Amino acid sequence: MSWIIFWGITLVIVLIAYAGLFVWVTLGGMSDIRSMLTALQQQGQESNDDPF
């Protein structure tokens, strides 16, 4: 196997791994932000209902 083929395969594997990690982190972050905003909204509604 020549070095060009080796590094080409290595590059493809790394790019696929990076793309998978990017999708995983993006979707996980969006889920975390959505749950944080929901919790903040519920907390704000509770504080508005309490007169003290």
Task: Describe what you observe in this structure.
The mean pLDDT is 91. It is built from 1 helix and no strands. Helix content is 90%, strand content 0%. The longest helix is centred in the middle third of the chain and has 47 residues, at 3-49. With 52 residues, it is mainly alpha-helical.
Q: What's the structural blueprint in terms of helices and strands?
A:
Blueprint: H1 3-49
Summarize the structure.
The protein contains 1 helix and no strands. It is mostly helical and 52 residues long.
Range of helix content: over 70%
Q: Work out the number of β strands.
A: 0
Between the first and last Cα atoms, what is the distance in angstroms?
75 Å
Q: How much beta, percentage-wise?
A: under 5%
Low-confidence stretches are none
Mean pLDDT: 91
- So what's the overall shape? rod-shaped
How would you characterize the largest beta sheet? none
Listing every helix as H and every strand as E from the N terminus to the C terminus, the arrangement reads H
What is the structural class?
mainly alpha
State Rg: 23 Å
Q: How many H/I helical runs? A: 1
